Amino acid sequence: MTTTTETTTLFTPAKLGELTLPNRIVMAPMSRVRAAAGGLATPSMAAYYAQRASAGLIITEGVQPSLVGQSNPGTPGLHTDAQTESWRQVTGAVHANGGRIFAQLMHGGRVSHPETTGHRPVGPSEIAAPGEVFTPSGPKPAPLPYALGTAEVPEQAQSYANAARRAIMAGFDGVELHGANGYLIAQFLSSNANLRTDRYGGSIPGRIRFAVEAVTATADAIGAARVGIRLSPNSGIWGVEETDAPELYTALLAELAPLGLAYVHFEATVGDEVLLPLRRAWRGTMIVNPAHPAGPRWSDREAAERWLELGADLISFGRAYISNPDLVERLRQNLPLAGHDQDIWYTGGDAGYLTFTTYQHEAA
């Protein structure tokens, strides 16, 4: 944990595992669905991330650790040799620009569709997510997932570790397990998506077991100092809820603490009355994203500085990074942030992806 003092700002260097970050600004993971067929990273993706290499740390969009773990069409993977090789251009471009980059490993669980993967989605229980999921032919109702048997759960936990090994082979500095926003790890943590009565459900120790096993396997595979996890207590995203979030996440942090992870990454999906005790309970590095991912407000400098004062070590920015590749300098100089149209987030192609520029000063 990097001790936050009165003089700590967004621009104070920080240690993260074996890395030295030049500032405390983290680019949060955001799906942009620009991968090529077969889940391959592309030259455009390399350019996109390299443009944002001034961040203290970049965390990529969600990367599926297995085919059944793919949530949306057009997303990249880390479970084949071709995918692994394709990421080298991304990590190489970021490192050439002086940056540091973690891959976010995202298993969609029940938030998927057979049209996307060719497989029935899996989950802790046979309960469909509410609403529609993206498919190659357009939005479709979320299907009923296959409830994993007790003996089948460890294979899904191990998929994160397998993908993490590939991430290091591809040149990433580390990985973040996506335990937030209603995807597979969050489904196991949930009190309404997980109705199991075996060792992976029911009580808090049961519901946190999958997360602990996935993180432990990943730490064993590549070293704990290269591993983080993202969490979103009781976010409600994709219908996932936790009726006992304070107790649940306190117990989860207690189980993760001995591993020596690089960080935990919390989204502000609950109020200070829940997050501040979790900050006190976690003695390691904590990243906080001050904005609810489904809310109308972006993370901004005011919210970031407030969380530094409250004890966060690093602050992540998501939507602000889409149209502001030079976000660090805009924040440093208090320059206005460029806006963007949400309609361009998932359209594919370079328009609305590589077309945002650094701040242009007007001539005197």
Automatic annotation (TrEMBL):
Superkingdom of the source species: Bacteria
* GO cellular component terms given for this protein: cytosol
Say which family it is in: Belongs to the NADH:flavin oxidoreductase/NADH oxidase family.
UniProt-listed Enzyme Commission number(s): 1.-.-.-
Q: Which GO terms describe its molecular function?
A: FMN binding; oxidoreductase activity, acting on the CH-CH group of donors, NAD or NADP as acceptor
Supply the Pfam families for this chain. Answer: Oxidored_FMN
Report the enzyme's class at the first EC level.
oxidoreductase
NADH:flavin oxidoreductase/NADH oxidase N-terminal domain sequence ranges: 10-337
Q: What is this protein called?
A: N-ethylmaleimide reductase
Biological source species: Micromonospora polyrhachis
What cofactor(s) does the depicted protein rely on? FMN
Q: Does the keyword Oxidoreductase apply?
A: yes
